[in-house]
Amino acid sequence: xxxxRFVAANMRLALNMVREEMGPDAVILSNKRVxxxxxxxxxxxxxxxxxxxxxxxxxxxxPFQQAQDYHRQQAPTAPTKPSKLEREVERMQNEAxxxxxxxxxxxxxxxxxxxxxVINTDQIPEAAKEEAKQAxxxxxxxxxxxxxxxxxxxxAPETTPKTTPAVxxxxxxxxxxxQMRHELQSMRDLLEQQxxxxxxxxxxxxxxxxxxxxxRLKRMGIGAVVADNLLASQPAVASGSNDSWQAMMTELxxxxxxxxxxxxxxxxxxAFVGPTGAGxxxxxGKLAARYVLENGAEDIALVTTDTMxxxxxxxxxxxxxxxxxxxxxxxxxxxxxxVLYSLRHKALVLVDTAGLNRQDERLKLQLNSLNExxxxxKTVLVIPTTSQVEVIKAAYHTYKTDxxxxxxxxxxxxxxxxxxxxxxxxDKSLPVAYSTHGQDIPNDIIVGCSSGLVRSAIELARHITTxxxxxxxxxxxxxxxxxxxxxxMATN
Length: 492
Known about the structure:
- This protein has 17 helices and 11 strands.
- Helix 6 (165-206) packs across helix 7 (208-220).
- The chain has helices spanning 11-22, 63-71, 84-118, 126-135, 139-155, 165-206, 208-220, 224-233, 241-255, 280-295, 314-323, 336-342, 361-373, 389-399, 419-427, 450-461, 468-491; strands spanning 2-8, 27-34, 37-44, 268-273, 300-304, 327-329, 348-352, 377-384, 404-410, 432-436, 445-447.
- It starts with a strand and ends with a helix.
- It is an alpha/beta fold.
- Strands 6-5-7-4-8-9-10-11 form an 8-stranded mixed beta sheet, with helices on both faces. It has a 3-stranded antiparallel beta sheet with strand order 1-3-2, covered by helices on one side.
- Strand 2 and strand 3 (37-44) form a beta hairpin.
- Among the domains are: 104-155 and 165-206, no CATH class; 256-461, P-loop containing nucleotide triphosphate hydrolases (Rossmann fold, 3-Layer(aba) Sandwich), CATH 3.40.50.300.
């Protein structure tokens, strides 16, 4: 028997090292935390190392469905016997689940004890006490009371009278609960990493072609949900994946919504919203210059609601002077509705808005003023394609209005990946009206074209790489999304 020690930064890397060097029949004798990360002690019979691992048969099913089935611990499709390493990993996972359940039970018990101690004190409102008495030992209410206690302690001013022994004891219990929650979450994250890594490795061996296509979509920045639909729409082929890839890109072009014609050609009132620096004012300048060149300056006007920043409207005023277009400013003396009414004789009105933080109270007032205009005004979301995917999603939810009509993708000349913005447009059914690719006015703006945008995303992906860890995380993300959707459907 050969015994060997492996040390890595985390459990996933350590297991990969064991699998690569010792093979699937290695037995894990022990594992523990060390200053370098994780230490695993393994053993294997010398004869076992010479036996090659049996490859699982190819499987052409959807990889995302395989991931979901794997996380549900369904039986594998291939009739292969689990290896010693897989059995050992399963044993470790079972132990982790047992520890997690024990921690959860202890956490619930601590919550119940905390409620019993504070239910008759003055630390929570009288109404909450009455509800607690009626609720009894329900864990959900206990958790709510515990959270209320934590918020009151955190918000207490420095001039609060001297803390009583009972309150100090409760504070210590809150710290213990917080530490236990942290340990429980860490254990859950470790377990999810192990499951995701093994699920991706199994799929990559069984369906290498679909795994390769999924990696290409990931390099493009295509989100997990959109990639799931694209892979599901294409039948698996044994070889020659180029035809399948071309068909998938054609499907992507068909799914990407775009405005059929030039948005401003028929006139109307359009308000451009989005985060600071997204390119709202520059986009308005390009569209205004294009309209003036084609139709003249008599039937167009510009409006700005951005009076928060110093000289915020000066750039728009410059455009107005160059193009001979009137500029109107919305302030406390002139509401947006009043300004638009004064410009009712204009065929085209472009409204520039302030890019406010989501925590800014003025943002809600600004969005409400846009919603009050109704369908007479169409909102256009300006999305900077240079932003990270979470920032792009946050921009949509932050600036979404009742009359959101379309979007503009800006800074294509600066971005490194375009798939994130395309995925948002597909997922939210938000048509792309224009895309911009420079500062030149009015040339660096074109009407939204699905095939052109997809080609740009493919070209940018040539300079991007991805690894197995990223793909395992992608598989885990989709599995969580599917579980969340199923939970919502079950609740409804």
